[in-house]
Amino acid sequence: MARRTDPEKRERILESARRVFLEDGYEGARVAKIAAGAGVAVGTLYLYFDSKDAIAGALTERFFEKISDRVVPMFADLSTPQRIEAVVDAALAVAEEERVLFEIEKLPERSAQSFREQMVGALAESLEEQGLPPNLLPGDAPVLANLLASLMERAIYECLVWRTGDIGRYRRILKRIFVRLLLDRAPV
């Protein structure tokens, strides 16, 4: 008979893991410390997660869900500078809220790659459906979506992970680049 799990307890475990990973690094983090921080026994933690890797994977998935829920629906209408700027703001806001995840070593790369492909695919599909930019050559939407995603990722790492850039400046420039690339009438 399967045991029922408590969503609040699972959330406490994830929040504790987040703190412990940040304090001790992924390799230095101990499951016992994560369990203690969540106020559960180690055995109880293992009812929710098979391993430390599984906990890191759940943290990563939670981030991906959050950014997908906020950003992907916004792809449906990229017809004005304000709507494009709102996408940039939303993506950077989630990254700022979850900046600790970028500081945790060894987040599951396979999940990150899969998520990136999904986001790029959703953006490319929206660009094609909306005919953006107007002079984009057939089949180039995935390339443009990939390049835009790369610019966003680089800004996140420069400003939130490595702390070598000013997020306000990056935000402003990203908005200009995205608007120019998506709405400009010049050949792409």
From TrEMBL:
One of its GO terms (molecular function) is DNA-binding transcription factor activity. GO terms for biological process: negative regulation of DNA-templated transcription. Transmembrane segments: none annotated. Keywords: DNA-binding, Transcription, Transcription regulation. It holds the Pfam family TetR_N. This is HTH tetR-type domain-containing protein. It comes from the Bacteria. SUPFAM superfamilies: Homeodomain-like. Residues 30-49 bind DNA. Residues 7-67 form the HTH tetR-type domain.
